[in-house]
Amino acid sequence: MTDITDLIQPDRGQDATAIHLTTQKGFDEYAKTLSAGQRASLSAQKFDGSAGQIGIVPNGDDFFAVGGVSDPEDLSSYCLAGLADKLPEGTYRLANAEAGAAMFGWLTAHYRFTRYTDDESATGPRVLLTEQVGRLPTYMAEAEAEMLVRDLVNTPAEDMGPAALEAEFEKLAKAHGAELNVTKGDALEQGYPMVHAVGRAAARHHAPRIMHLVWGKESDPVLALVGKGVCFDTGGLNIKPGGGMRLMKKDMGGAAHAIALAGLIMAAGLKVRLNVLVPAVDNAISGPAFRPGDVLDSRKGLTVEIHNTDAEGRLILGDALTRASEEEPDLIVDFATLTGAARVALGPDYAAMMARKDDTAQALIEAGKANDDEPWRLPLPEAYRDYLKSDIADIVNAQSNPYAGASVAGLFLDRFVGEDIDWVHFDTFAWRPYPKPGRSKGGTAYGLRAAWHMLKGRYGA
């Protein structure tokens, strides 16, 4: 993971380059404070104070920077990220604002995935000084969680298979004194038959498994996190075309979210009995692969007719959600890179979110808006449950029509969540197809900060 430990430091009067923030509306007034030469320099850079713009202003033998923002008194998470990414190596101080929430984007702007190659284009660190030292640990922890998701999702499947995900759980359990139980291979047939069916075609070193981490006092309310851990998805016998398979290393993005969120929860000491369940499989093609037309048993006892082996994530989640429900949780939150339909509906910048309870959904939306990670609620319509009817089993795993794919997948999962349990499902892309300041191309968390801040408000520290 990119080392961000010293990128924001307490302001003790160190030498630092000033950053002046301005707005498009206020730029003309600000420009009056500059010399004619300095104004000419900004004009040559076509700087007019628009949000996201960056200007370098000569100042004798040195320089200072100017950044365009929407509101210097209410900085958003990413409004300084462009500065953190583009400024020369050095130490900086905001001249007319406090960084606040923008510390998060300053940190994530430094992210680089360099496991397989050196980033020769990267400049040295840009250090930001702040007097808001008390707020720094919060943004540091959230930035590290975000970058953990990026690292896990960016890592190719050969190095981030089921065994590697298990190793991540082992590190997590050791760091926080949690209990970890792992069921793998043919032992899954008894308790997690759908996890076994989806993963059984993979090579031995990518054998399927389910990780179950438990932490916290038994007397505290149970919070369950579930993450889809399809480490690579060929589509199974309903094989994906080459273009559709290219990014399937990211199909364990839900697991990455669950791991990162669990780390935040345990580090902060939320008052919960935490259960984290991640089924990890490769949806591979070989002789034992499950087939279209098969009928699978499930942990819940429902039988599932397979219409499409490429709708495998909901199968492994079904068994995991059933197990999570057995703990009688106060809340279940699952993350999954589940449907292309959610991307068609919302594009790459929003996580689709479905929830049984309106107040839980609203709390997540408000937490997301406040932390620049807004989810978008999609419905779980009763009218579409008929799309999952089977002629020979209790339920099918994929509808035969092209309508409401994300919601129908959510309705499938809903059948495996215990009655009356508060449940939230995030259908997250876990991937950014193009970069934005503070948000690199590649693996990305969506809904992570929304869920984290909602949980902090609900369970306290």
TrEMBL record:
GO terms for cellular component: cytoplasm. GO terms for biological process: proteolysis. Residues 308-315 form the Cytosol aminopeptidase domain. GO terms for molecular function: manganese ion binding; metalloaminopeptidase activity. It comes from the Bacteria. Pfam families: Peptidase_M17, Peptidase_M17_N_1. Keywords: Aminopeptidase, Hydrolase, Manganese, Protease. The keyword Hydrolase applies. Belongs to the peptidase M17 family. This is Leucyl aminopeptidase family protein. It comes from Erythrobacter crassostreae.
